[in-house]
Design brief:
By secondary structure, the protein is an alpha/beta fold. It has helices at residues 3-23, 62-78, 94-104, 117-121, 149-160, and strands at residues 51-57, 83-89, 110-112, 129-133, 139-144. The chain has five helices and five strands. Helix 3 links the parallel strand 2 and strand 3 (110-112).
Length: 161
Amino acid sequence: MTRRSKWRIWLVLALLLGAVVACRQAPEESAAGQQFEEFTDETLTQYQGKAIMLSFWATWCPPCRAEMPDMEAIYRKYRDQGLVILAVNAGESDGDIAAFVNELDLTFPIFRDSKGKARSAYAIRVLPTNLFINKEGQIVTRKVGALDQLAMSAQIEALIK
C-alpha cells in the first residue's frame, strides 16, 4: 500500500467519524424538559374560528430554516387579529426541535408528526409546505417552498378579512 493510499484511508475514516458525530441525535435531556405534542386530527379543532397558517417543516431543511424568522414576525403582527400559526415538524426529536425553537425564539405552537400521519393526510411531499386555512376550516391556499413576509402577509390578509 502506498503512502498516498494510506493517507486517503485515514482521510475517509476521519470524515466518517465526523459525520457520525455530527449526525448523532441530541439527547432528550437537552430539550430542557420540553416535549412537543403530536399533531392529530383534533389539533385543528382547538383553533376553530381562527385563520390558520399550517406549516410543515424540519430543522434540517434550509428553506424551512430561512422562513421561520419571517413566520415569527408575521405571527406577532397578526395574532391579535385572529391568526394562528401551527408548525408541524417532520418527526424529529424533541431535543432537536427545542434547540431550534430556542435559537429563533419562536412563540407560535409547534407540533411533531413522528409517524408522518399529518404529512400523509395533507399530501405533503416537499418541505416547507404551507397551508392557509380560513375561519370556516377550509384550505384556501397551498404554497410549496419557502415564503417571505410579503408572500405570507398577502395570504393572511385575505384570511383575516
